[in-house]
């Protein structure tokens, strides 16, 4: 049996984190640990704080109470802290957020060239490697408007991978897609999960959660109500709030 004291520290540690938007409290005293290589799925009703949680992890939102440590760094608003965090933590958004005036290849090479200092040649080679990984290398010369929604989201995933982050955050990555496009994006995410990438995924795709999650997190009204393995979560939820949510979403 492994001595718990010898276990590595979590790659993400949130302690008693709170966040307000004016009079609305989006996060209430949230604590969560994520281990290196762990796949965490966060779910809950709309307005429960899921997106705010992950946006605080890569400092798109700043928390006003508590502590967040990511990849050994305590998050602050200093420029040095922000640059390091953005280098370690990639994010995939609901609405793709691709630059419409740039080709797919240009979208992918922009960050590695400007932030990481890669040469144009090296950035292009890296971009093509990750376009191969998400199975759309033939789309490199196209503009985002010429792609399907599923293809655009795969480009967005490849763009994050081009920064070679240690952690990937997904904010409802399939919610803007037509049903037939959801499966192709989820397959890419499954492959990433199987490769050992540390992932936090905000999603209502419970089939995906059952397949890849190590840990389920259920949020409601800005609080983490319960966490558990997928087996525990889906077969024996501890709270009535979670049981009601699952009944609604699984029978939808």
UniProtKB/TrEMBL annotation:
Domain ABC transporter: residue ranges: 12-246
Gene Ontology molecular function terms on file: ABC-type amino acid transporter activity; ATP binding; ATP hydrolysis activity
Signal peptide location: none
SUPFAM superfamilies the UniProt entry points to: P-loop containing nucleoside triphosphate hydrolases
Keyword Oxidoreductase: no
Source organism superkingdom: Bacteria
Alphabetical UniProt keywords: ATP-binding, Nucleotide-binding, Transport
Name this protein carries in UniProt: Glutamine transport ATP-binding protein GlnQ
Organism: Thalassovita autumnalis
This protein's encoding gene: glnQ_2
């Amino acid at each position: 049996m492994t001595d718990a004291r010898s276990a590595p520290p979590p790659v993400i540690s949130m302690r008693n984190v709170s966040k307000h938007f004016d009079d609305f409290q989006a996060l209430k005293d949230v604590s969560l640990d994520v281990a290196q290589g762990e796949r965490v799925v966060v779910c809950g009703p709309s307005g429960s704080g899921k997106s705010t949680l992950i946006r605080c992890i890569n400092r798109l939102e700043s928390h006003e109470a508590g502590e967040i440590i990511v990849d050994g760094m305590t998050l602050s608003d200093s420029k040095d802290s922000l640059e390091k965090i953005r280098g370690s933590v990639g994010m995939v958004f609901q609405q793709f957020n691709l630059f419409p005036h740039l080709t797919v290849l240009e979208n992918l090479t922009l960050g590695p060239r400007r932030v990481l200092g890669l040469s144009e040649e090296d950035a292009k080679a890296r971009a093509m490697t990750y376009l191969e990984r998400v199975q759309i290398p033939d789309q490199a010369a196209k503009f985002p408007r010429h792609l399907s929604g599923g293809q655009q989201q795969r480009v967005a995933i490849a763009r994050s991978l081009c920064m070679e982050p240690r952690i990937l955050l997904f904010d409802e990555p399939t919610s803007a897609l037509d049903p037939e496009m959801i499966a192709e994006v989820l397959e890419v995410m499954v492959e990433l999960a199987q490769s050992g990438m540390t992932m936090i995924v905000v999603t209502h795709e419970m089939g995906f959660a059952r397949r890849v999650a190590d840990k389920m997190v259920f949020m409601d009204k800005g609080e983490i109500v319960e966490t558990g393995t997928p087996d525990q979560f889906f077969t024996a939820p501890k709270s009535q709030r979670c049981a009601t949510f699952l009944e609604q979403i699984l029978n939808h």
